[in-house]
Amino acid sequence: MRTPASRRAEGALLRLRVQPRASRDEILGWQDGVLRVRVTAPPVEGAANAAVVALVARALRVAPATVHVVGGKSSRDKRVRVAGLTDADVRTRRRREEQPGQACARGRPDRCRRANPPRVKPDNSDNFLSPVWWADDRLMLVDQRLLPAEELDRAYGRWEDVADAIRTLVVRGAPAIGVAAAFGVALAARQSRATTFDALLGDLEAAIKGLAATRPTAVNLFWALERMRRVALASVGVPLDRVTARLLTEAQAIRDEDIAANRALGTHGAALVPANARILTHCNAGALATAGFGTALGVIRAAHAQGRVDRVWVDETRPVMQGSRLTAWECAREGIPHTLIADVVAASLMARGQVDLIVTGADRIATNGDTANKIGTYALAVLGRHHRVPFYVAAPFSTIDPALASGEHIPIEERDPAEVRRVGAQQTAPATSPVFNPAFDVTPAALITAIITERGVFRPPYDFA
Length: 465
Hints:
- Helix content is 36%, strand content 20%.
- The chain is α/β, with parallel strands linked by helices.
- The protein folds into three domains: 5-92, Conserved Hypothetical Protein Mth637, Chain: A; 107-262, translation initiation factor eif-2b, domain 1 (Four Helix Bundle (Hemerythrin (Met), subunit A)), CATH 1.20.120.420; 265-458, Rossmann fold (3-Layer(aba) Sandwich).
- The longest helix has 31 residues, at 240-270.
- The termini are far apart.
- Mean pLDDT is 88; it is low at 1-9, 98-110 and 113-125.
């Protein structure tokens, strides 16, 4: 039943700026009190206003039925009435979006609920997801443990809390871990009460040691920490406040360079994707696993933008379900056609000829091309070889460990047995049953068709020199 006009007039009134004829419907964020959105339709009554209603409902977390376009129906500047909210409610939500650091100023680390999807940063012109950034003297992380049910930012002001966030999978994925750890070192410098360079260096070394102990397999973690250490050591004789500023600048550079690398490797990888491709991917190697854009999912995202992707098969990825919780969520958010499958379905799909290529990320690559990635990756490579399906690894060059000649030397993290004894909160095995729960396995270089990096595509025999 239609809502009477008298009742529709009740509620908060907000202004929108609509960019029409975009590649997809999406929220750009608040600016000067105006909610900015993009829609695929032209700025006329009908499809454009339907898209606007859906985006406003998503931004404010209200039912679409409560949102009504009341002005500017045929223009780019529109006015929208939202039943059930007051103007004060909208102002509060808007301020949280426009000033994320102030919304997160209470406690360490704090919870920062937001109406929009994970935050789009000012340097992010393409509106892709970024799970790690710096705002108002704090490190901000999207809490990936809560996705897809809840979208939540957390603010961190101490390196010890950043280490805990890495350890407990608030942030995960080798490149994202490295970026977060770099900002952790920057926070350690800001926390330090040292009055001499040597004392500051001691505080930084303690933080680097603590951050390095969080996840043993992801080489990007150690690469980023060593890069931060070099900046600190090169700053002898520099005033301490400038040392702190240099470390923050370096952490930001690591983040920016990771995004650029992911874009570049996405372009290189898209050239390997045939038309109407059916791609299988494992775990989450998307924007959530990096500073933004993604590695394996970055290749898929770039290929999708070129119209090459027919379907993405998303492994659920037991036991932590990064595929179903994170990759499927990213695909849905981006409008990438995908189908979620149980891990055990992959072999049947390949046997039926329904997979054209496999693309995964990596946590560490030895100089001979052996690659450590999420547990289950090795099995997919074996299946790919048997069914003659190309198997590609996508990772930034920082994932290659020049100190390791082969994969047999890659340390493999073993995680909490409880991850295997349950699915979510539901216990699925006896509490007394022993568990073997390696987080990663190693795929031999001989099974890898090519390794995609920002420097180009490498094929066997691998030579990264």
